[in-house]
Amino acid sequence: xxxxxxxxxxxxxxxxxxxxxxxxxxxxxxxxxxxxxxxxxxxxxxxxxxxxxxxxxxxxxxxxxxxxxxxxxxxxxxxxxxxxxxxxxxxxxxxxxxxxxxxxxxxxxxxxxxxxxxxxxxxxxxxxxxxxxxxxxxxxxxxxxxxxxxxxxxxxxxxxxxxxxxxxxxxxxxxxxxxxxxxxxxxxxxxxxxxxxxxxxxxxxxxxxxxxxxxxxxxxxxxxxxxxxxxxxxxxxxxxxxxxxxxxxxxxxxxxxxxxxxxxxxxxxxxxxxxxxxxxxxxxxxxxxxxxxxxxxxxxxxxxxxxxxxxxxxxxxxxxxxxxxxxxxxxxxxxxxxxxxxxxxxxxxxxxxxxxxxxxxxxxxxxxxxxxx
Length: 373
Hints:
This protein is of the alpha/beta class. The chain is built from twelve helices and 17 strands. Helix 1 runs parallel beside helix 2, helix 4 (142-150) crosses helix 7 (249-261) and helix 9 packs antiparallel against helix 10.
C-alpha cells in the first residue's frame, strides 16, 4: 500500500484471509452475575460448532494466524465449556479478546498468553471510532499480540509516556484507514464486488445445515486454511460506528494488525522535524511581535549556501504565516502531513494551545504598555 491509503477502495485479500461469521450460529445459555445468580437466557456463539471449527483448523495446522473475536466472559460460562477452553489453550497462533469491563471466563484462557484487549475507544472530540490503541491500561491489544506472535523478535514496550519497538519510537494508537472491509451478501446482491465475503461457520465452513444434516463444506476443500489469516467473529451483530460507516469489530481489529504490519505505528523523524519547523514559525509570530522578515533578510544576505537555503524557506514560510491565521495554517499542515506522511495530529488541541499563548502574550504586551505610560 502507498502513503495515500485514504484513496484506496476495499482491498481484496480473499486469497490470504478467510472470514468466518458466527452470527447465525448461536445457542441460548443462562447468564449469571458475579454471585452465581441467574439473570436470564442470552445468545452466545455455539460452543459445539466452534469447537469443531477449531479442531479442524488444528488438524490442518497450516493457517497463518487465527483471530478468534468471540468473547468468553465469566457471566456466560457453562459447565461444558472446559473442552473448548482446552482446545484454545492448546493451539498455536491464535488470539482471543477481552472486552473492556469484562472478566475472562477461565484461568486456563488467561494463563495461555492468548488473550488481548479489544478496545474501540471514542473521545470527546470524536464520536465515531478513529484511533485504535495498542496498549490499554497496560495490557496488550489483540492486534498487537498477533503482530508480535507473527514477527518473532519484535516487541513493543512501554517506557513511561513513550513506546518503543527496538530502537524506534512508536505511537500507542494509529489512525485507522480501514482499507480492508468485509462485503456482505446483501451488498453483493446490490451490485458490489464479491470481495472479502464472510462464510457462515455452520452452513458454509462446517457444512452443518440448520436441521443438523450434513452438506458440502468449505473445509472439505484441500488446503482450505493454508497460509491464511482466519478471522472468526460476528460480522452482522458486532458492528461499530466509524467514519466509514458500520464496520464489524473483527474487521477493525484486523485493520489495526495490518497497520502494525505496514509500520504505520513507527514515528517518522522527518515528520517530527517538519512539524517542529512549522510550529516554530507559528510560535515565532506569536512570541516575537516584530516582523520576522528581518530574520529572513539577514539569512538571504549570507554567502553560505546552507544559510541562503534556510533564508528562502523562511521567506516562503513567513509569507504563508503572515497571510493565514494560525487555525487555517494548522489545518493545511494537517492535510499536508496526512497525505505525505500518513500522520495526523490533534488540530483542536493545538489551535487551543496557540490561541491561549497568543492571548497571554497580548495581555503581557498590553500590561507593559500601560505600565510604561
